[in-house]
From TrEMBL, chain A:
WD repeats (start-end): 206-247
Phylogenetic lineage: Eukaryota, Metazoa, Chordata, Craniata, Vertebrata
Organism expressing this protein natively: Anser brachyrhynchus
Compartments it resides in: Cytoplasm; Nucleus
Keywords: Cytoplasm, Nucleus, Repeat, tRNA processing, WD repeat
Entry similarity comment: Belongs to the WD repeat ELP2 family.
Protein name, entry field: Elongator complex protein 2
Transmembrane helix recorded as keyword: no
TrEMBL record, chain B:
GO terms under cellular component: basal plasma membrane; cytoplasm
Biased composition (Basic and acidic residues): 391-404, 415-424
Lineage of producing organism: Eukaryota, Metazoa, Chordata, Craniata, Vertebrata
GO-annotated molecular function: transmembrane transporter activity
A biological process term (GO) from this entry: xenobiotic detoxification by transmembrane export across the plasma membrane
Biased amino acid composition, Basic residues: 426-439
One Pfam family here: Oscp1
Protein name: Organic solute carrier partner 1
Organism of this sequence: Anser brachyrhynchus
Record-linked InterPro entries: OSCP1 (IPR019332)
Length: 337, 484
């Protein structure tokens, strides 16, 4: 879709773009978070479309047995996962070349319709998360055979029982994102929750919106989180790890072995916490996962009289984002100046 | 999309229709007996057992056209008649009101509360008739049974299905404009203050937990919104306080209801951009209608009861004016269906049952009703004789509906729809009407919005733009003759 250029001027800058209909794509339906998605696999880039008649992967047409399909993600090196209304997740094996797409596996852990699927390529264990209508989250490891790592159940609403965490019972999980071992989930009751993918533990709960959250997006390079909901608001959050708490045990970086020195800031290529080399971000993954998760609010935008149906960052740093809404034929783009 | 949205759509739109009719009956000072009879007849027809059975079967929402036809029939289920302009206005008001209610529902499940509000009001209309009351209660119970245990996600899907149905409708309603719930561009105002839905927390709090589940940090953020906690949850029982005000009667005798016909969006292209590919569901849709309307018991007024005409406008002149100036893109294309066998060997149904859409070039149309022919003179095409059965011709102005602007320009894409309707309403004829459409001046062949691949491994055939064969169902063989 055409995106406007960055507008100069005072923050926030908005450019309004006429939404063009991509050939073969229908007008986005309210709430169909992903009727279509670009799936980027190492070997090729595919466009996956879902409709009531089935699932179409580029030019292949594979009918599904469910009433509808919802939630699409590329997982592992060569898989595309699609969720269905019956709760099953179909895993398609995409060859490097050619048209021989097959259903490699059917994941049947969910009992309710799948709402969204998110994946992180190249992250090893815990690289796929699936969410459903009841609010249940399942975290998987992709591969020849997908294995279930964690199942985060719906928090039951037992009257009288004191629940120290998650005081509000779960609602439909409408949108989910996976980033660096963190599951960010948006719910129909306006909450955003952050879970550790490896353990399934709830780390943060945000009373973010007053209505159903339709869209979540993550900017991978900075950990910025975007949320859009029916209450007309779009919020930008920042995820980070906070080393300055008592909750951290002395991190032992597996590369160095033994106790690692803390508090020493390394170079970009060295882990901040343990000083080991070979990190993509400022901290090696093992150390990263040990620190407690934080989320802070960065920015809010109100799109007047519009129920937001879609929101996406336009770049991997999260400096600009685009927003769509019900009954809106325009795409609004916001840029940080 | 959801297969459970149709009952809610039908019942809520029906409820709105009754609110409006009730207001107009009182505003026009129709005698109490007659007014009550009309309301009772319509409600009895609406809640007809067989009709409800069909309705509750899981199925897709059908087109605006099909649904409009049902309400057309419903409104004429008694001794009351409505002219086309009034019927159009009624339908506009109904749909915009329900669109507003669906949009503003705090929780997806609250759509059920809106429905219950309508049903509560309907029960109040017929409180003196225990027989009909039973019928309504029966439907109430069925609603509770079917929808009572659906999840939030399923309700949201229903809501999205309904919103999709109402997408791009921006007719301005004066009562909404006055109350500032609708903007002058036709969009509804979405408040960012007030109570949050039941089950939602007021936005602003961030809680962070350690690995053991203990809360270790709390921060807050602020926004422009000004929300407060909800008071209490509405009741989903047969009787109870619904709490929610959406779906209650907002009309009263002193507040006349008007619509502003220029309410179409500035971007007219968006109206023409409907899916113009041949609709494979068209046949299903009309079969469904035939089944549904087959269950509707059309009341014929008895000897002593005289029919009357209800006007949704304040004067007859206003109604005429509205008919002439209705923008083309807002005209409803109603399908004429006779869902019952001709009662007396082909004679028309009784007074007030239906009013016929006039067809262009129809020599047997009878004397032109002076009221509807004040527009630009109709072009004669010389092939009127072949169009006896009311084929809708794309470049014939008038076309039976009275709203053609002087320019007579056909929006692209109508050709295919008209062709469809044409074939469905005429007698089987080899070769169809394609010849005429090729001769259409200036009409471009419509380009389908959805381009499907040529073929796939499953052998999905490419769509072919051919007119569907006329249906064999007896429902489509006859067009009504005019009510004099």
């Amino acid at each position: 879709m055409p995106v406007g250029t960055r507008s100069p001027g005072t923050r926030p800058a908005v450019s309004v773009v006429q939404g063009a209909e991509a050939p073969g794509a229908q007008r986005a339906h309210p709430g169909d978070q992903l009727p279509a998605a670009w799936c980027v696999l190492p070997a090729r880039v595919l466009l996956v479309l879902t409709s009531q008649k089935g699932i179409q992967v580029s030019s292949w047409f594979l009918p599904a047995q469910a009433v509808f399909a919802r939630g699409i993600a590329a997982a592992g090196e060569r898989f595309i996962c699609v969720g269905t209304s019956s709760g099953t997740v179909l895993v398609f094996d995409i060859p490097h070349k050619g048209t021989n797409v097959t259903v490699s596996e059917v994941l049947e852990e969910h009992r309710d319709a799948i709402t969204d699927i998110a994946a992180e390529l190249g992250q090893g264990a815990g690289d796929l998360v699936t969410a459903d209508d009841a609010g249940t989250l399942c975290i998987w490891s992709s591969g020849e055979e997908f294995t279930l790592l964690n199942k985060i159940p719906v928090v039951p609403n037992i009257p009288g029982e004191e629940v120290t965490r998650a005081l509000v019972p779960s609602c439909t999980c409408s949108s989910v994102k996976l980033w660096n071992g963190v599951v960010a989930a948006g719910y129909g009751n306006g909450q955003i929750r952050l879970y550790e993918a490896a353990t399934g533990v709830l780390r943060a709960e945000v009373n973010a919106h007053a209505r159903w959250i339709y869209a979540l997006d993550l900017a991978p390079l900075t950990g910025k989180l975007l949320s859009g909901a029916e209450d007309s608001f779009v919020h930008v959050w920042k995820l980070s790890r906070n080393p300055d708490t008592d909750d951290v045990e002395s991190p032992a970086c597996p590369l160095l072995g033994g106790d690692a020195p803390t508090g020493r800031r390394g170079s970009k290529a060295a882990c901040w916490a343990c000083g080991c080399a070979g990190c993509t971000y400022f901290m090696c993954r093992s150390c990263w996962l040990l620190f407690p998760l934080q989320i802070e609010h960065c920015h809010a935008e109100c799109v007047t009289d519009t129920q937001i149906c879609g929101a996406r960052f336009c770049d991997p740093e999260g400096c600009s984002f685009a927003v769509t809404g019900y009954d809106l034929s325009e795409i609004f783009r916001y840029s940080q100046v | 999309m959801s297969g459970r949205a149709l009952p809610l759509l039908f019942l809520n739109l029906g409820g709105e229709m009754l609110y409006i009719l009730d207001q107009r009956l009182r505003a026009q000072s129709i005698p109490g007996e007659k007014a009550r009879k009309v309301m009772n007849d319509i409600i009895t027809t609406m809640f007809n057992k067989k009709f409800m059975e069909e309705l509750f079967k899981p199925q897709e929402l059908y087109s605006k056209k099909a649904l409009r036809t049902v309400y057309d029939r419903l409104a004429h289920a008694s001794i009351m008649r409505l002219n086309q302009a009034s019927m159009d206005k009624l339908y506009d008001l109904m749909t915009m009101a329900f669109k507003y209610q669906v949009l503003l529902c705090p929780r997806p499940k609250d759509i059920l509360l809106v429905t219950f509000n309508h049903l509560d009001a309907i029960k109040d209309f017929i409180r003196d008739s225990p027989g009909i009351l039973n019928q309504v209660d029966e439907t109430f119970r069925q609603l509770i049974e079917v929808y009572g245990c659906l999840s939030a996600g399923e309700f949201q899907l229903i809501r999205q299905t309904l919103l999709l149905f109402f997408q791009d409708m921006h007719i301005r309603v004066s009562i909404f404009l006055k109350d500032k719930v609708q903007n002058s561009n036709g969009r509804f105002v979405l408040p960012i203050s007030g109570p949050v839905p039941w089950g939602t927390e007021v936005p602003g709090l961030i809680r962070m937990y350690n690995r053991n589940g203990d809360e270790v940090k709390r921060t807050e953020f602020t926004t422009d919104g000004n929300y407060i906690p909800p008071q209490r949850e509405g009741s989903f029982d047969l009787y109870g306080d619904r709490v929610l005000k959406l779906g209650t009667n907002m009309y009263s005798v002193s507040r006349p209801v008007e619509t502003h016909m220029s309410g179409s969006s500035k971007n007219l292209a968006s109206h023409a951009k409907e899916n113009v590919a041949p609709n494979p569901l068209a046949k299903e849709e009309l079969n469904f209608l035939a089944r549904l309307l087959g269950g509707l018991d059309i009341k014929k007024p008895g000897g002593s009861e005289t029919g009357f005409r209800l006007n949704l406008f304040t004067t007859d002149e206003e109604e005429e004016q509205a008919a002439l100036t209705r923008p083309e893109e807002l005209s409803y294309k109603v399908v004429n269906i006779q869902a019952t066998q001709p009662r007396h060997g082909g004679q028309p149904l009784g007074q007030g049952a239906h009013h016929r859409r006039e067809q262009p070039g129809h020599p047997a149309a009878g004397p032109a009703r002076p009221r509807h022919h004040r527009g630009p003179p109709r072009r004669e095409h010389g092939h009127g004789a072949r169009h006896q059965r009311g084929c809708l011709h794309e470049h014939a102005p008038g076309r039976g509906d009275l709203h053609r602007p002087a320019g007579g320009r056909v929006p692209p894409g109508r050709a295919l729809r008209d062709r469809q309707e044409c074939a469905l309403r005429s007698h089987p004829r080899p070769g169809g009407h394609q010849g005429h459409h090729r001769a259409a001046a200036g009409a471009h062949p419509p380009r389908p919005l959805l381009r499907r691949p040529r073929q796939g491994p499953q052998g999905v055939p490419p769509r072919q733009a051919q007119s569907p064969r006329p249906l064999d169902h007896p429902a489509f063989s006859e067009v009504m003759t005019p009510v004099s």
